[in-house]
Amino acid sequence: AVVSFTLSISEGGVHTVSVDNLSKVLRVIGAAQFRLENMTVSKLTVRPGEQFTVRVSVLNFGTAAGSYNVTLTVDGTQVDNRLVELEAGQSTTVTFTLSIQQIGVHTVSVDGLSRTVTVSEEVAEFVVENLRLSKDNVRPGETVTVSVDVANVGTAAGSRTIVLKVDGAEVENRMVELAAGQRVTVSFQISVQEVGTHTVSVDGLSVVMNVSRPEGRPYLYLLYAVVTIVIILCILLVKQFR
After folding, report:
1. Quick one: pLDDT band at residue 26, thresholds 50, 70, 90?
2. Which end of the chain is least crowded, N or C, by CB within 10 Å?
3. Domain final residue pick, 73, 101, 123
4. Residue 212 contacts by C-beta under 8 Å, 6 or more apart in sequence?
5. Mean pLDDT score, 157-174
6. Domain containing 74 — which CATH number?
7. Residue 20 in contact with residue 56, Cβ under 8 Å?
């Protein structure tokens, strides 16, 4: 008689399946698993036809490389998609650029993550200016404050995502909500370990930050040596004349 068993193994790798004294090796191939998070919208209030961007982070937390189709919808209707290929443990940021013509409140979604965008004739209009650093020259790991002024020069209240980048890579983002005519200063705290020249950017504005190790002061050691020699000579002379 033939006896059959049905089993499933969720963990990838090599497994030994045994029945009484008989055994076989079963290899389970790992699978890619994807998670989407940190969805941001550059503007939550726009004019009809005005472009804005939607960003979302995609992570492959599975045990094998794979691909995933990231889908963007507006009010439940697909408007764009991107195919991403990631190794196990790898992540990336997907960016969509879109516009909506119809006035009203719309739901913008990326695979289960959603934000509300209002299309109105009266909208917020943001100006980002005066990017500055608390220090231009720092040591590795030293904390630097990055500040930028944000003003809403539009005719309605609104919000704007302010994105901080170091050498082109996004480090942090901050959502700012301002009434019409309101102005605020947005500050970030950063530290860079790598020695060299780095570009710090916020919404198209850029400044340069230099990271360097403190230089040694060999002349101090020479001074110490000279002082020590003089002291020894003085002691010897005193002893000689006694």
Report:
1. low
2. N
3. 123
4. 137, 138, 139, 195
5. 93
6. 2.60.40.10
7. no
Token pair in block for residue 219: 């002349």
Residue 3 in any domain: the answer is: no
* Contact by Cβ (8 Å): 110, 56: yes
The token duo for 62 is 């599975």
Query: How many other C-beta atoms lie within 10 A of the C-beta of residue 20?
Result: 5
173: number of Cβ within 10 Å: 16
Nearest to 114 by CA among 72, 77, 176, 80: 72
Q: Are residues 119 and 138 in the same domain?
A: no
Residue pair 77/133 in contact by the 8 Å Cβ criterion: no
Indicate whether 153 and 190 sit together in one domain.
yes
Percent of the chain residues past pLDDT 90, beyond the cut: 67
Written as six digits, the tokens of 127 are: 């100006």
Number of domains in the chain: 2
The half-sphere exposure of 3 on its side-chain side, counting CA atoms within 13 A, is 2
Residue 65: φ, ψ to 5°: -70, 155
DSSP class of 170: E
CA atoms of 112 and 142, how far apart (whole Å):
39
